[in-house]
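The methods section describes the discrete structure representation at length, but only in general terms. Since the whole study asks how a given chain folds, the encoding of that fold should be made plain. An entry of this sort, consisting of the sequence and the corresponding backbone structure tokens, reads as follows:

. . .
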Amino acid sequence: MAESSLQSQCESRSFSLFWGSGSVPCWRVMICLEEKGLREYNSKQLSFLNQDHKSDEVVDINPRGQLPAFKHDDTILNESLGICHYLEDTFPDKGTKLLPDDQKEKALALQRVYEALTFQRKWQQVLYYVVHTPADETKQDVMTKNKKELIEELQLWETYLQSHKGDFYLTGSKFTMADAVFFPQLAIIIRMHPNLSKTFPLMGDYYNRLSQRKSIQDTWPPHWKEVGGQDLFDEKFDPHDFDVTRFFG
């Protein structure tokens, strides 16, 4: 085995990651680990449905009892964007360069990374409203408003892709941290809006392209491979029929 490969494995094994299937924050961290070539880390999948993330084992690392929970030697980080930055800063010359050297390109990548937090709030309004509101208490006008705001947000990101039409990735010709942060969000949206590409064709093309990337294939939420999503945008959708296991494991 090559010396560089052995070194990479030793570095990877100093990482521990607690994660859950279907978690967007967990997935973006796992994509970044793969892209940096840090694949042999200590990985522990936990169940949201069984409340594993509230266990003492997790709370000892993350007092909020949330995932991801991440440790590198004696360094602890639990915010997913912070972990992504930490990996790039700590291992700038390993694997994929997640933030470009060119200042203008880096600025655009960082803009999209942090702008994706607004994007995240919009889809969470749609999905988490159904997750956390008893079916008998859901209000159609609230669901309609939440969906409308998400569609408006998606339109903005469609224009971003339009401005880079012909390029493969979100900010240009190279995969960056922006893609690692954005793609898992788009993937969970497509699970609740499977006809999205009819309205947003560039978004659909982007999803289809990146779905084939090795780092994304290798970290795809395991239970998503076994069950499909649920169309929350279907006019006939009934909150009483909502199945959380189609999103979170």
In short: The chain has two domains: 1-91, 103-246.
